[in-house]
Amino acid sequence: MTYPLLERIQAPGDVKLLSEKELPELCEEIRRFLIQSVTATGGHLSSNLGVVELTVALHRMLDFPQDKLLFDVGHQCYTHKLLTGRRAGFAALRQKEGISGFPNPKESACDTFIAGHGSSALSTAIGIARAKKIKNEPGKVVVIVGDGAFTGGMVYEGMNNVSQLNNLIVILNDNKMSISKNVGQMANYLTKLRTDPKYFHAKAHMETALESIPVVGNSMVKLLQDGKKLVRRGIYHSTMFEEMGFQYIGPVDGHAVVELGRMLNNLHEQFAPLFLHVVTQKGKGLKPAEENPGEFHAVSSIDLNHLTNPELSPKDSFSTTFGSALAELGGEEKRLCAITAAMKYGTGLNFFKHAHPERFFDVGMAEEHAVSFSAGLASQGLLPVVAIYSTFFQRAYDQIIHDVNLMKLDVLFAIDRAGLVPGDGETHQGIYDTAVFSQVGIPLYAPANYEELRYWLNFLVKQKRGPRAIRYARGEERESLAALGCSGAPFDKIEERPGARVALVSYGVLAEEIIAACDLLQQKRVSSDCYKLVQLYPLPEGLCEALQTYDCILFAEDSIRTGSIGEQLGFAMQQQGWHGTFLLHGVDNTHLLHANVPQLRRDQQLDAAALVNDVLAHMKEKKK
User: Fold this and answer.
1) 30, 144, 358, 568: least surrounded by Cβ within 10 Å?
2) CA of 225: how far to CAs of 162, 195, 235, in Å?
3) Which residues contact 593 (CB under 8 A, 6 or more apart)?
4) What confidence category does residue 186 fall into, taking pLDDT thresholds of 50, 70 and 90?
């Protein structure tokens, strides 16, 4: 497939060399390229298809890297990457040594800030705009905020601090609300009028002249402003934005690239922070994505000719196993409620929603609210289950401690995407939850296969009370771990060899690496035993006693090395008077790649070969 216009864009600013007439065709080429490329490599699709024209129009207006463009959330940045000369990198999108799926200043000077989590970019943009003011630097700061991000409270905290930043433009990328309601002839006329530079000059000069009138000047300005507000309330319903200090414009059609470009050019000279309301269609240009943008939000490599309905045929995974099991439990336990934060499909809670809609709650990108809301439910005798990705649970740290744990409320935290996560890189790794939950005293469990997940979920819903958490990996169960079944014990000795003086210990899906390592050590004539934990915190009763007989213990976990389970076990063994060698393999968070899970494990020295090498090195050192 050829892309004649897109191929002419090799560097930032090249899009400005195209004529206005060529812009619609460029947008179609970009859309075709994204569909072809992302369905081959995997990545975020729906969100990027919706902002093609908006990004092109902004690149016609902005000068990089003097001007700054931020995204909330950063997965909307693919067109931006294409327009800044990174088309070749899409062949390895989100793969090791390829380009990131999010903005990354290490990758390009045109990327302003890493943005992997939602609702935060506006605050960052305000800080950058304020810094430009302090340093007397020229340039605009533009932030594109998806309507989903407006479900998170941090956006509103930022909006309350925009005073006098006339170098800031906030764009609401609205792909849910109807454009027809507010875009009529009068609204179109007023939008064009209010984006005309002459309007801004007249407005500024009028207010300056009135303010100079002795005694009554300021009162006259206030009277004039109040009158305008009354008119705007009737036409735009935009009082909130303007009362926070913005000049509100919109809603405008986010797919009319020529008109959008002209309007943005008119806005180049501004006298106040601008709030531009742009309406787009998520998934535009790919009919299945238009009809079901949630399913095409993030995709693995897919065949567009063989698509399934996610409502009927979800892919086999820990998430869907959890979701279907919870839905079954919801039928038995009428107090059970399910809460998520804009991840209904990702967490598998679509099953619960269909079965028990009155007890299902998707609160949007508001993890803090999700946890405090669940605390309120639990305080009234209900049994809430909060299912959120590990990386996003970080956002609710205070609420977990203060609103749930202090009162020991019956809230079950279901930690999806725990451990090493492929593709998304440093912003989405699920490596902190073991440290977070264990350090505040919340019991934590980590099943390694579907059977264990079902068993321990049932246990935590029906028998365990108070705050508790269960963590599980992204994707499917591993064959070697599925074969282990479920003993129902908090830990298992899964490999035992006569005369073993070495014990390998792990939990969750990483247990497959210690099983493989045991086999490799046996080939080296080193006998070792394997232990797999399900209960991580508190450490299972009897575990330290079982490990006392070994000279060397290697503990491997796909969580942060400092503060997680391995350090706690090493300390506990020391407290019990054990004097052997403790080898700890955890995640070093100073260099997190975007790569697949086997590559991440090799990079972090968590694969079987690295574990074996460490044991052999220890034994060699011991013989000296």
Assistant:
1) 358
2) 19, 18, 15
3) 96, 425, 426, 599, 600, 603
4) very low
127-158: pLDDT as tens digits: 999 999 999 999 999 999 988 888 888 898 99
Q: What is the pLDDT of residues 430-439, one digit of tens each?
A: 999 999 999 9
Instruction: Enter the tokens of residue 385.
Output: 């289950």
Residues 415, 446: Cα–Cα separation, whole Å: 9
| Catalytic-residue membership of 282 | yes
C-alpha pair distances (Å), 551 with each of 57, 554, 607: 66, 10, 22
- In the set 282, 417, 454, 478, the catalytic residue is 282
Helix (H) or strand (E) segment spanning residue 275: strand 274-279
Place of tokens 């830990």: 491
- What is the DSSP code (8-state) at residue 394? G
Nearest-angstrom CA–CA distance, 496 and 481? 16
Q: What are phi and psi of 39, to 5 degrees?
A: -70, -20
Task: Convert 334-364 to b/e letters by CB count within 10 Å (16 or more is b).
Answer: eebbbbbbbbbbbbbbbbbbebbeebbbbbb
Tell me which of 31, 194, 353, 395 is the catalytic residue: 395
pLDDT in tens, 303-336: 565 444 444 334 789 999 999 999 999 999 999 9
The pTM assigned to this predicted structure is 0.84
8 A C-beta contact, residue 507 and residue 416: no
Can you tell me whether residue 529 is helix, strand or coil? strand
Distance between CA atoms of residues 278 and 51, nearest Å? 10
465 counts as catalytic: no
Question: Rounded mean pLDDT of 518-524?
Answer: 96
Dmax over CA atoms of the chain, in Å, equals 98
Nearest to 514 by CA among 547, 558, 477: 558
Give the three-class secondary structure for 210: helix
pLDDT band at 580; cut points 50, 70, 90: very high
Task: Tell me how far CA of residue 139 lies from CA of 41, 58, 105, in angstroms.
Answer: 35, 13, 18
Residue 14 and residue 6 in contact, taking contact as beta carbons nearer than 8 Å: no
Residue 115 carries which side chain, given as an amino acid letter? A
Name the band, by pLDDT with cuts 50, 70 and 90, for residue 209. low
